[in-house]
Amino acid sequence: QVQLVESGGGLVQAGGSLRLSCVASGSIFRINAMDWYRQAPGKQRELVASITWGGSTHYAVSVEGRFTISRDNAKNTVFLQMSSLKPEDTAVYYCGEQVRFAPYAWGQGTQVTVSS
Fold first, then answer.
1. What is residue 22's DSSP assignment?
2. How far apart are CA 56 and CA 54, in angstroms?
3. What is the pLDDT of residues 22-47, one digit of tens each?
């Protein structure tokens, strides 16, 4: 069974930075693409960033140039470095794993709150 555990969320002032981590277990992490999603109150969950098994990345327009996704396959961990944070970045951030030949896996989420 795939398990994803996020950490690193918290309260930060606008313009600040946070680094989210997501540790995966129960899958062949190194062959799977990984995603970060977020969901703000009253809004749909949206894709923030993705990274393939080979390290190719994709970002939502709203975070391009401010957020960086990376992975450490030796530690089964994916990161989301968030800089120049804005109040509109406030949301619950979820890690997701595109598990091959199995259902998509979600973490439990970590709250990020950016104060103005």
1. E
2. 6
3. 999 988 888 899 999 999 999 999 99
